[in-house]
Structures are given as structure tokens and as C-alpha cells.
Amino acid sequence: MTVYDVIVIGGGPGGLSTxxxxxxxxxxxxxxxxxxxxxxxxxxxxxxxxVLESVSGNEYLSTSIEQLQDYxxxxxxxxxxxxxxxxTPDSISFQVQTESETHTASRVVLATGFKDVPPKxxxxxxxxxxHYCLHCDAHMFKDKSTYVMGHGPSAAHVAMTLLxxxxxxxxxxxxxxPTWDDNLDQQLRSHPIDIIKEDISSIxxxxxxxxxxLVFEDGIRREYHGGFAMYGSExxxxxxxxxxxxxxxxxxxxxxxxxxxxxxxxxAVGDITPGHKQIPVAIGEGANTGIAIYLELxxxxxxxxxx
Length: 307
What we know:
Blueprint lengths: L1 E8 L3 H12 L4 E5 L23 H15 L2 E4 L2 E6 L8 E5 L3 E9 L3 E3 L13 E2 L2 H4 L8 E4 L3 H10 L6 E4 L9 H8 L4 E3 L3 E6 L5 E6 L4 E3 L2 E4 L3 E3 L2 H5 L23 E3 L10 H19 L10
Parallel strand pairs: 1-2, 1-6, 2-3, 6-17, 8-15, 9-10, 9-15, 10-11
Antiparallel strand pairs: 4-5, 5-6, 7-16, 12-13, 13-14
Helix pairs in contact: 1-2, 1-7
């Protein structure tokens, strides 16, 4: 059994940032990461100051992990199966169990993120005409023909928002009935957006694999540079539920301004918490939480033996 001051579960930007601060502020920190995640899937890194867009998500994360290991962070490529509180009236600690090892820590940080719900096939290739993050990728579609897939309120809102970037926006219901209310329907139909009921029958790609056109079940072929799928999110919150952390109605972990959950000693950062799902936001949250953990765990005022 290995004993740490802090264990961060998840290896995205929020968790990495937290680990950087707790380590550099003097606490023995481990990151336990199963791999994958939204950041790892990025073909290009957008909206991160100082990082070129040519850098892929995997390259960005690999460089970050190497940097943290140089500072002394322990990085473990494992899957956490359970977290058990070991707290007493006088102290807080946790046993973190992976598929092969057992660890303990005084504080646990959940940075487990979420995954986008993909549309049903057929569908374009992710990152080559199929996208999920409006704030990351909308700029790519300036003055280009763009689609939004989905039949809920979020799809309607994203379609209207895209009109800030292009005049050519289609909302693809893919054979489903819309679930937004009458007020949103009236607002949507006041915008120059074509709402297409028919489902997609086939995909056409360019020679580089990027989307060229969608063919619909009524035989109509429509060319698009790309677009966004809006079918919701699935939050990786099982560990939080097991620990008794309070969730919001979407399944995100509720936290205070320091990233502390409703369970003492358990923090959460990044996409698993409410807020914008952006790398710079997650980095800031991680830094804030890392400092908060330092302030909680530090010995202050420091005690010295009587001389």
C-alpha cells in the first residue's frame, strides 16, 4: 500500500493542474488515470494560450504529464474501482483501490470528466466534420455550410448561435420529433435555419477524409463543411455517487468555490463539475483547488519543539 497526501483521479487538464499545484506546494501527489477522455481525442488544441493549434490532444497531455513527473508527481495508468473513506473524528483519509493496487490519501480529487453522446450511424468522422464543442470549433465554420444534429433544446440553441459565424445552418432532426417547447420553436423558426426532418442515409467524404456531403433518405444530397452533434452528455460520476457527493440534475458534481464537494476531503475539478467545458477553465479550476488543498493540509502556524 502506497500512502500519498493527494490522489487525483483522472488525467485531463483540470486534474493535471491540481496535481501541479499540490506537488509544487509540497504534498506527495499521485495521478491515477485510465487514459482516454475528451482532451485526448482532440485533433488540434484550441483556445489554450501558448499552445499551437497544430498540437494534438495526446501531444498536449503527454507533454503536461512529463512536466508533472519532473516536479515529482507519481503518474499511474490504472483504473480506479472504488474509494473507501477511512476517516476518524480526528482525521480524513481514503483508501483508493485500482484493479491491481491499493493506495491511501488524505485528500481525493475527482477529475473524471464526461463523454459526449454520439449520434447514431451513419455519421461523419469525429474531428473531420463531426464536432461536439461549439466554443472550440465554431470558428472553423465561418462562412461555411454547417449542420447541427439533434432534436432537443440544446440543438436549437446551438443552431441559432452558429448564425454568428455563418448564414448557412441546417438543423438535422434525423427522423426524430423535436422536444423543445413552443416558445423555443417560435424563436428558432424566426431565424434563417432550415429544419430537416429526414434521417441520413449515407456520408460522402473528401479524399482527405473530411466530410463533403450528407445524403438523406428522401434522396436529397446536401454539402456541408461539418457541424455539431447535440445529444447530451454522460458524466463519469460513479465514484462521486459512491462517496455520497451531491450531484446536480445533469449529473455533475456540485462544488464550492474551492472545488470542495459535499463530502469532506473530496474535491472535484474540470468537466465533471458545472461550468464551461474548456481546457483553460479546467486549468484555472485545478489551480484554485490545488491551492485550496494546500491551505487545508498545511501546518500553520508551524509548531516547533521548545528550545
